[in-house]
Give the backbone structure.
Amino acid sequence: MIKRLNFIAIILFFALPSVAQKVEFTAKAPSAVVSEQSFQLQYIINSQEVKNLQLPKIADFDIIAGPSSFTSSSYQFINGKSTSSFTTTYTYVLLAKKEGTFTIPPATAVIDGTQHKSNALSIRVLPPDAQQPKQQNQQQSSSAQIDDDDIFILPLISKSTVREQEMTMLTYKIYHSGNLINIENVKLPDFKGFMIQDIDLDPNKVNGVENYKGRNYQTYILKQVLISPQNAGKIEISPLSLTGIVRVQRRVQNPRSFFDSFSTYQDIKKSLSSGRVTLNVTPLPTPKPADFSSAVGSLSMSSSISSTDVEANSSITLKITLKGSGNLKMIKTPNVIFPTDFETYEPKVINNLSTTSSGLSGTKTFEYLAIPRHSGNFTIPPVSLTYFDLAANSYKTLTTEQYTLNVAKGSGSQTAVAAYDAVEQEKVKQLATDVRYIKTGNLNIKPQTEIFTGTLNFYLFYIIPLLIAVLFGLIFHKKAKDNANIALMRNKKANKIAKKRLKKAEKNLKANQKDGFYDEILSALWLYISDKLNLPLSALNKENMSEELTKHSVSPEITDEFLSLLKNCEFERYAPIQDTHAAMDKIYSDSLKLIEKLENTIKK
């Protein structure tokens, strides 16, 4: 009976975490496609209990295949807690029938016994190419050429004419014909004469498809930045330059057969430049107000205070909040004039901002902490801020309200001292006085009569440290002897060094940094084998590595698995830019497992 209850408890323990899982029903498709070309529409559901998936009415697209379904699952047991997850993906292949922007309404499905809806999708259908891209000459040649209209950079600015201090968004976008595999030697403009605010790019939105001058291109957003000119006039931004690595396919005629030809690939480096960007900056009206804060945009200001009735030596918090859009991050902290009897501290600034094409929008809050030291009635005067309103084309002054404080006499000792913690600005604590009285009366002082020299403790005091020193000397001698054996040390540390590199690869995996990930994986694998087999890395190749692994009793299956993993890494490293997170995740998992197998097989 007890065994049965334990079994039921274990089943419930593993089942409960999955019951609480929130249902996610997500529709996914490219944001832009080309007319008369097919694309995938996917519905991703985090459950395997899916019934009666109903597509919405899709009048603007033809369904040419689907649905095909795929279910994946994962289980984890960490720190005594188990989690399980299931993902079911339904894939349809659609064909865009005409140009325009179209909406695919939500789909419905019964998931875990409950009806659910997916999100809607907006898809922009681009026209087909007005003229077909130029094909490479189908002849044998030592080099291939890339035309300037096959790959280029465009600097896109949201507004080319702005006011002084006004923010505008500058985007550098690469247009290519789908064969760009890497970017290097990126040199950014110096942005002289501008205040800038970098924008964090969403990895899921940097790639896209656009029709430019009658031709469809794959696009990649390289950089986005908000710029704010500090002076009026025509200001030029120097070009952004880089080197793009493009993979070109060439058809080569077989010299032995007139009818036979084959394809080859060549990676070509192409130097690209965005060209200069000119911004027309109109000056702000003069004369400027004396208290102008250099803020430009559309703003409002409010204030609040924690309490107007307090005791002496108790803290109060005054908050001033700016809300709106513009160059909010560049606004200086407003000056609040507290009464002279108040102890004040550096204000705390809280930014809750988001980026738009015209600048930053949201709120910026200033928190001021002050402590009145004496009782009485005090006044905190209004705080004003003058800015230039772009919509009204004039200067405006914002003002907070005036606060009157009633400070009562504080309780406690008059000699107590208040202290302020700079990390926790809201906490004020009382420290006791630091005066200590001198002890008087009979101190019961006795003379020391015992002699330490010549006693057992006296000799142990010298002998014990000597023994410890000898022991440490023997340990260090043995360690130095082991370290002198370079082959042995390389073999012992191979696994540790490989795991460190795999940790770096894992960080690149989480950040979706493809190049860094595969560089660390390949380095970890090659260096591990070099250390384990005691072969110089320069003399190591796939052929002699296979022979050496066989000498160390490594099975042919593990050897083939290792060579296949190296081949997959090299292929994925130079694959075209796309969503390869799943492939990276699998290669990382296979590398961990393979090094563990080799570690258990190759032993000194």
About this structure: The chain has four domains: 14-126, 151-282, 299-430, 486-601.
